[in-house]
Write a structure and sequence with these properties.
With 152 residues, the chain is of the alpha+beta class. It is 18% helix and 28% strand. Strands 1-6-2-3-4-5 form a six-stranded antiparallel beta sheet. The termini are far apart. This is TIGR02594 family protein.
């Protein structure tokens, strides 16, 4: 719970979305943003670690502006034509969700080491999620509100 300089994961006042993304990057062997970086400064202030891409790809970091600062999460795929992301500090927990389309300043980044994969994927559509398989694998991290039209 004290990962990345945050003393707690409770509440929207803590920028633990960035801590979650940093944790995942570190676990996957990528270079994370500097410790304690908030979502509002995560990728665009670290050009030595992250590259901005024009279109979302699987695994990209999605940055957006929202009330109280920025938010970062991972692009996971699509469900019923809408993007699905995985992030921390989403409804005060770690979960998959459709990102709020009213947030401004949306941009996508990848670690420099992921850039070649991202460039090769730019012409492809995001993968469609098998919601049943995702729920079986991830349980409560998949809220009931995230459902497939064909499996509703």
């Amino acid at each position: 719970m004290k990962y990345d300089g945050n003393p707690t994961l409770a509440g929207d006042a803590n920028a633990w979305c960035a801590s979650f993304v940093n944790y995942c990057l570190r676990e996957a062997g990528y270079s994370p943003a500097p410790t304690g970086f908030m979502g509002s400064h995560f990728c665009h202030n670290n050009p030595d670690k992250f590259v901005k891409i024009s279109k979302p790809v699987y695994g990209a970091i999605r940055y957006c502006r929202r009330d109280g600062g920025g938010h970062v999460c991972f692009v996971y795929g699509t469900l019923n034509g809408k993007m699905v992301v995985l992030g921390g500090n989403q409804s005060d927990t770690i979960l998959f969700e459709h990102p709020d389309s009213t947030y401004g300043g949306v941009s996508f980044y990848v670690p420099i080491a992921y850039q070649k994969f991202a460039e090769a994927e730019q012409d492809k559509e995001l993968p469609e999620i098998d919601i049943i398989a995702l729920k079986m694998a991830m349980g409560d991290a998949v809220p009931k509100s995230l459902k497939s039209k064909k499996n509703s």
